[in-house]
């Protein structure tokens, strides 16, 4: 678990990384003194919003990079490589709020009958990964909360994110994993940074 000061640091680092990349066209050097949780391998996502509308979201679901490296790479990717949006401009950055989600390692949801999956998913705590037929989709735990989804809706929409039919989770042809996240975000562009935890 990160404390609020660490959370503030990673949100600020994400913003600074994006600004540097948009100005210089290259990734900045990581901070000299990180240590602690920043050097631990963690999954991490960076989400960018403009006027409460998504403007970019990319990350690393698996803990195969240190938090500082995964964070900086994800920040640049969210700003410039999300295929749903054009690359962010430096001028636009002034209107963007930055949100960072630090993930727990995903764990497979084991059920005998796929119809039992919704009982194993808690909206407001779990994020989901659906994988099958060579496709994979991930939705962060804050997404169903923001959109008022049930556990069934959440499973269906994660399938859609993977490019699968909404009811694919019922067929037993996909693997479903869940994870939790600590979320730190700006209340307004470059404003106060708060924590929203989605941890069991």
Condensed summary:
It comes from candidate division MSBL1 archaeon SCGC-AAA259E17. The chain is an alpha+beta fold and 200 residues long.
Q: What is the fold's blueprint, element by element?
A:
Layout: H1 4-24, E1 43-50, E2 53-60, H2 67-80, H3 90-93, E3 96-103, E4 107-108, E5 127-132, E6 135-139, H4 142-147, H5 151-161, H6 168-171, E7 175-179, E8 181-186, E9 193-198
Antiparallel strand pairs: 1-2, 1-3, 3-8, 4-7, 5-6, 5-7, 8-9
What features would you describe in this structure?
The protein folds into 2 domains: 4-104 and 181-198, Glycoprotein, Type 4 Pilin, CATH 3.30.700.20; 107-179, 2-Layer Sandwich (Dna Ligase, domain 1). 30% of the residues lie in helices and 27% in strands. The protein has 6 helices and 9 strands, in the order H-E-E-H-H-E-E-E-E-H-H-H-E-E-E. It has helices at residues 4-24, 67-80, 90-93, 142-147, 151-161, 168-171, and strands at residues 43-50, 53-60, 96-103, 107-108, 127-132, 135-139, 175-179, 181-186, 193-198. A 5-stranded antiparallel sheet has the order 2-1-3-8-9, with helices on one face. Helix 1 (4-24) packs across helix 2. The longest helix is centred in the first third of the chain and has 21 residues, at 4-24. It is globular and about 50 Å long.
Spatial order of strands in the largest sheet: 2-1-3-8-9
What's the CATH H-level homologous superfamily of the largest domain? Hypothetical protein ph0010, domain 1
- Rounded mean pLDDT is 94
List low-pLDDT spans: none
CATH hierarchy: architecture of the largest domain: 2-Layer Sandwich
| Count of extended strands | 9
N→C terminal distance: 12 Å
Helix content: 25-40%
Largest sheet: 5 strands, antiparallel
Q: Note the overall shape.
A: globular
CATH topology group of the largest domain:
Glycoprotein, Type 4 Pilin
Structural class: alpha+beta
Number of domains: 2
Task: Tell me the Rg in angstroms.
Answer: 17 Å
By DSSP (H or I, 4+ residues per run), the number of helices equals 6
CATH class of the largest domain: Alpha Beta
Percentage of β-strand residues = 25-35%
In sequence order, what are the helices and strands, one letter per element? HEEHHEEEEHHHEEE
InterPro entries: AMMECR1 (IPR023473), AMMECR1_dom_sf (IPR036071), AMMECR1_domain (IPR002733), AMMECR1_N (IPR027485), AmmeMemoSam_A (IPR027623), Uncharacterised_MJ0810 (IPR023472)
Protein name: Protein AKJ64_02335
Pfam families: AMMECR1
Organism: candidate division MSBL1 archaeon SCGC-AAA259E17
């Amino acid at each position: 678990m990160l404390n609020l000061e660490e959370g503030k640091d990673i949100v600020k680092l994400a913003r600074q990384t994006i600004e540097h990349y948009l100005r210089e066209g290259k990734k900045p050097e990581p901070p000299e003194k990180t240590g602690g949780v920043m050097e631990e391998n963690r999954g991490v996502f960076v989400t960018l919003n403009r006027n409460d509308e998504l403007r970019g979201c990319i990350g690393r679901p698996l803990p195969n990079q240190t938090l500082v490296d995964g964070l900086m790479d994800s920040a640049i990717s969210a700003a410039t490589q999300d295929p749903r949006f054009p690359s962010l401009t430096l001028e636009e950055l002034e209107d963007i709020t930055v949100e960072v989600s630090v993930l727990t390692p995903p764990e497979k949801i084991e059920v005998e009958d796929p119809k039992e999956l919704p009982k194993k998913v808690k909206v407001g705590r779990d994020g989901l990964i659906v994988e099958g037929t060579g496709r994979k989709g991930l939705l962060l735990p804050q997404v169903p909360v923001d959109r008022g989804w049930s556990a069934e809706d959440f499973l269906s929409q994660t399938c859609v994110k993977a490019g699968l039919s909404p009811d694919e989770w019922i067929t037993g042809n996909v693997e479903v994993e869940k994870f939790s996240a600590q979320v730190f975000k700006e209340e307004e562009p470059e404003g106060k940074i708060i924590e929203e935890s989605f941890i069991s």
